[in-house]
Each structure stands twice: as structure tokens, then as C-alpha cells.
Amino acid sequence: MITFISAGRKSARLIEGFRSFMDDSAISVITTAADAEESPCGCFARDLDTLTFLFAGILNTKTWHGIQGDTCTTHRALIRLGTEEPQPVGDQERALHISRAERLKKECLTDVTIAINQTYGIMAHILPASETIGGWSVTTPSGRMPLTRYRTTYSDDTHACAIHAPPDSIPHASTESIETIRNSDVVIIGPGRPVTGIMPALMCRGIVEALKEVPVISFVPFTGERSTTPEMRAYTPDAVAECPAYDQFTDLYLMDARDPLAFDGALHVDTRMGSRTRRESVAWDIMALAEGLKKE
Which residues form the signal peptide (predicted)? Predict the structure, then answer.
């Protein structure tokens, strides 16, 4: 079984490439609800939604978020009534958000996610890294803001200088996510959203310890997202604990062949995934590397 620690559209593209030659039942994906937001319109969780739609075969692969062909009747009605939304939400997608919010009144996030997967007939294993919903924040060059607002404002992590856990404490990883990692033949971390997507998953208590037990392939974090200098970045929660360094658990680093960054030990690969052919090609290349790690 292959497990992805996923965030953003780049991860979704890579996973789609693997689906071209792997059964969904052999794929597990762990992501976070760190940027989730609960409102009268339901519980919005961007990365969980994207993965759900991807494996259900209804993802809008032109934008890599939302449902293909979804309508925005409710969104437009809200605007007419003077209620603004940060971004348009499709009607079918909104139904998922409402259902998730209702289920969360009685069940934990993991159980709700599994139930939603079953409703969509999804065979892959999509899991939240923890049961915690929202509460994270991001420091940018212009100040600090909620993670949810950052993700709706910026299309990548170029402006993210630091990620902060919820004020009370760093979340504990769910039992299911820990067991999934430990039972994996290989874990692939990334690509995409290294600060606001991947890091909240890695920071969950227990994730790093589990990753040390299995082969791990990591996309070099922050590649292509370096408008702020490394000295400005502080990937630590407030006075709680340091964020995990990738070298604690990574067996093989990958980075884009066109990237000018010198990174000792990293394998340069062509990571362009703009077409189905490219996504499949990148996935096959990584699969070959994963097989090599398993043999070692």
C-alpha cells in the first residue's frame, strides 16, 4: 500500500497519476483539516473535499477543486441577499459541507470522512491527520492571519513565513492515520503547499515517529516557493515544540529538474504534471523509486 501525505492541487495531480496504474484500494491519503471552517453553510475542508471529489471521479480537473459541472445558484442568491462568501461554492459541494457539519455533531472527523467516502463509493482510504478542525494561523510578511483566510487569498505558499498550531496545543494524530503510515510500503510526502498543508499534518503528535518506521519519499519543501528568504521562515508553533525536520524520516528527496536550488542528496526529476500523460509519467518514475526503497 502507498500512502500520500497530501496538500493542494499538486498532490492531487500526482495521486491522479498513480490511479492510472494502481487500484484505489491500494492507495491511502492523509491530509489535514487545518484550514477547515465551520459556518452556517456547513464545514468547508478544502483538501478533504478535493480528495473526495478526485476519487469519486467528479473533481473539476481544470481548476483542481470543486465538482465538475457544479452550479452556484445558492452562492449567487447569497450575494443578492448581501451575504458575501470568500469564494464561490458549488451547490453539490455545499451539500457535502452541510452533511459533514451535521455528522460532526455526533461523530469525530475520521468517522465522518470514512462515512462520506462510503457514500461516494470511494475505495481509497482518505483520512484526516487528526480530529482537530481549523484553528491554525499563518505569519506572512504583512502580518498574521487565519490559515483559512490565507488559503483563500493566496494560490501557493510563497507568502507563508510561519505556521502556527491552534492556541491550546498541537493536535494528536488520529489512531487511524498512525496505523495507516505504519502499514504502508512507502509514504510519499508532497508535492505542494509545504507550509500551509503538509506541515500541519507532520506536526501532529505521533506522525514523525510513525514515518521513521517506513520508507519515505519527500518532495523538497519550498521548491519554487521562495519569495521570502529561508532566514525569514520559522516553522515552529508558539512555544510548544519545533516543527519536524524532513531529514528525521526522509529516505529519498525529489526536486524538479529545472530547479536551480542545490540540495545535497536530492534526485532531480521532471515534475511537470500539466497533462494526463505527464502525471502518469511522474507517477511511474516515483513508483520505480519506491520499489527500490522497498527492496533496500
Answer: none
The confidence score (pLDDT) of residue 182 equals 98
pLDDT tens digits for 248-287? 899 998 988 877 666 777 888 888 899 999 999 999 999 9
User: Structural domain of residue 53, as residue ranges?
Assistant: 2-295
pLDDT confidence of residue 26 = 98
Q: Domain of 61: which CATH number?
A: 3.40.50.10680
What distance in Å separates the CA atoms of residue 74 and residue 76, rounded to the nearest whole number?
5
Whether 97 contacts 112, CB under 8 Å: no
Give residue 109's Cα distance to chain centre: 15
Q: How many CB atoms lie within 10 A of CB 108?
A: 16
Total of domains in the chain: 1
Let me know: does 197 contact 51? Beta carbons within 8 Å. Answer: no
Of 203, 213, 141, 219, nearest in space to 180 by CA: 213
For residues 64-85, give the mean pLDDT: 92
